[in-house]
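Standup, Tuesday
Yesterday: got the pipeline producing structure tokens again.
Today: sanity-check two examples.
Blockers: none.

Example 1:
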Amino acid sequence: MGAPVVCAPMAIEAAALRGRLGSARIVRTGVGPARAGVAAARLAAGGPRPVLVAGVAGALDPALRPGDVVVASEIRFTDFRAPVPIPTAGPLATALRRTGMTVHVGPVVSSPTVVDGVRRTELGREGSLAVDMESGWLAAAAAGGPFAVVRTIVDTPAAPLLRPGTAARGLTALRSLRRAAPALRDWLEVLGPREVVLAEPRSFCAGVERAIDIVDRALDRYGAPVYVRRQIVHNAHVVRRLTERGAVFVQELDEVPAGATTVLAAHGVAPAVRAEADERELSVIDATCPLVAKVHAEVKRHSGRGETVFLIGHSDHEEVEGTIGEAPEAVVVVENEAMAHTVTARDPGRVAYAMQTTLAVDEAERIAEVLRGRFPAISTPRRDDICYATTNRQRAIRAVAADVDLVIVVGSPNSSNSRRLAEVAGRSGTAAHLVDDVGEIDLAWLRGARRIGVSAGASAPPELVDEVVSCLSALGPVDVTTTTTGTEDIVFTLPKEVS
């Protein structure tokens, strides 16, 4: 792969960046598609190389202001040519936001002529953020190598190019371009070949797939809106997609109109919630994961025998809240080893323990070991409460973490099983980070990381992992392998209301 090049169409853009981008060569390409095409052909002749296009542009979205930064997620054209995707836009935008500037990520249109008036409005309505006259043609300069586009805004729909104040707005845009230089340098410095090791199993488990399928089928069968108490699963992307389909997520049932179709989330609920649903005559569909339901049944069985139940888990997690509700007078939450050393029971000879299904296996077992040592008569679960998916994903990420420089776990921050994956990887001595999606990857993590492990929590859609791999592949040649520690073929049946 050739040396990186920064393409700046105008001399003033090149001057704003010169001396600020390390060893990268800055090439003034000229304004417009013809000159951009000539420059691209000349650069492409040397084979694949990283190319960063940096300069100013006009806003299409009326929300943008002079000096705002646009990072292109793809380049579109005003004719029928296919868009050029740019998978590294998210991490580059994250680096730019750390400079304190206002940064937008989205499509940039390349046009052979200046765009204004009605056409400008039309392009904005199609979802593009900004327009320039070079980026689309300069994409060929990379010849398949890494490519990125960063543009700072000069003119806007409310203040077109040929209006008083253009010069002042131009200076604002150039100052932003200069401020962007450290982040652009970060992008240039992490380019290069890598190995990506995928942990398998990863992403959706059977319980999550079942819960999401329940909401989708309820929308198909009963129509929108379908109300869902709390997040159906702990993932922002899943919730957003279902919201767009017509699901309405509420915290409590008193927000649901009487008689409405209502789904109870995968994490389970207390009996009091079900009673409230009956009182309000809601049409309830239960999406509780069968493995969570098993823990509820254990707690009811033990508490029914007069035993104190030590529930190993996190007191603020929805699953634990629902489990406590089965027998609030009998359940004692044990969050860590220190608590396990101090908790008490009404009758030390009549105790049992159960576990939140999404815990880190090693930590939960240490807590259970303390309880077994203190209460020799303690009743243990018939089978491990921690669900198969949590166990399998932790085993896989542990195997991967032992042989990589960096681990990236995809999952939302409120997902217990996703957080535990990152923690398990971290305890292996490897730097590990949890990201909601590719846009949260910090370029600084990638500096010096040539082997990167990737996994995803049981509530994270698999396409989010694909986007991470695509981003890493767009930073340089990537060899993708998979470390498999097990297979999963479990399928849970759907409730009769949607089957």
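Example 2:
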Amino acid sequence: MKICLIAEGSYPYITGGVSSWIHSLIKGMPEHEFILYAIGAQEKNRGKFVYDLPVNVVEIKEVFLDAYIREEAVPGKRLALTDEEQLALLSLLEGSDVNWGDFFSMLVRGRVPSVGDFLTSKDFFDIVQRLCEQKYPQIPFTEMIWMIRSMILPLCLIIEEGMPEADLYHSVCTGYGGVAGALGKHLYAKPFVLTEHGIYTREREEEIIKASWIKGHFKDIWIDYFHNLSQCAYSYSDRVITLFGRNKDIQIELGCDAEKIAIIPNGVEVSEYRGLPGKQQGEEGIINIGALVRVVPIKDIKTLIQSFAFVKEQVPNAHLIIMGPTNEDEEYFEECQQLVTSLQLEDVSFTGTVKAKEYLGKMDLLVLTSISEGQPLVILEGMSCAKPFVTTDVGSCRELLYGREDGYEEAGIVVPVMHVTQIAHAMVALCHDEQLRTQMGNNGYRRVSDLYTKEKFLEGYRDLYRECEGIHYGGNRI
């Protein structure tokens, strides 16, 4: 079977949990061919892969959201959009239910001359004016038209690009990736599977609320827009996979049909983490606190640094080692470095991208201070090394560390998001108690060895793909 696997903002350009998951899935399914449809943020990253693509990746299509409109547009054109197409566009802009088939039809296979013509057309102008009159009369039209154009330009470019033909479309998020999967199903009448690691809609909502460049009612418009993108993915999908029960409840709350949803947890090859190198001679008196994480705002590295400042007051021999790429958000990385300096902290290291197995064995405990997660692979990797964790109460962290009455007992300490003192107290407790670290590490090792193996993860997707092979639709489009 030829599977079009759709990744947004992850594989193969950056490392991280979702990227590792994709790489593991493709390598673990040599019986299938994969077309990799990679959605990136910036055109400058074209071809700059941080992974060696597996041999069963037979094609890669790269689409970048900062791409400029390539065709010369003629402002003020009339495109003779049908009433249904105009309603689909208006519904998308005002946050109501969208007929995505009508919206797709506008932009694929030459129905509209170009995205440029579409976004500068009299038809588009009229629809935005109608939106202002009906729902946002307090917003100046010129501000609205420029905001709406910038908002939907990436979506329109993705639809205009079209999709490679495949036997199955599999997106690893909603958002633009989810719309791309829905478009594949629309064009070729093939099944569409969605795996949602975190909840895309909630993550975008958090970012928009905090964003200083989005003002007033524009925040509501952006939030409704991303909600509609998720609704597109949910409605077109044949199966929706989530990683744990809490996410399933949120998906249902956001409008996904409960009967579509199944749970396939992440998994790791536990045997690969045995016998990792430990501390070198002379390092025995140091307490290494490790964070295997991308240095980006959603991982809340600043809270981690602030918490470590409290730890150092009580555990002078503690070292904080932040292991992961620092180039994804260079401004945020610089702010984190400045925070270390302003707090006059010693023994804080940013390693950049590393091979995790060269470092994990040297850690005494691991910490994750994210403000949003799905089911973090880094926790499973750390548990495979019998390392205890301190994590914020996001995603499935509580389930991984405390279990669901599975009999394995606690594998770490779960603390509130952004709560500097509680995070610090939890780290100090583990730093001071070697026996507790050992006990929790062993509890985690037993849990991951029995419940979260790579074998179970791959078998779950093999069964899913076999099931989808039996789904057939009449005609060429959905």
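Quick observation on example 2: The chain has a mean pLDDT of 92. The first strand starts at residue 2 and ends at 8.
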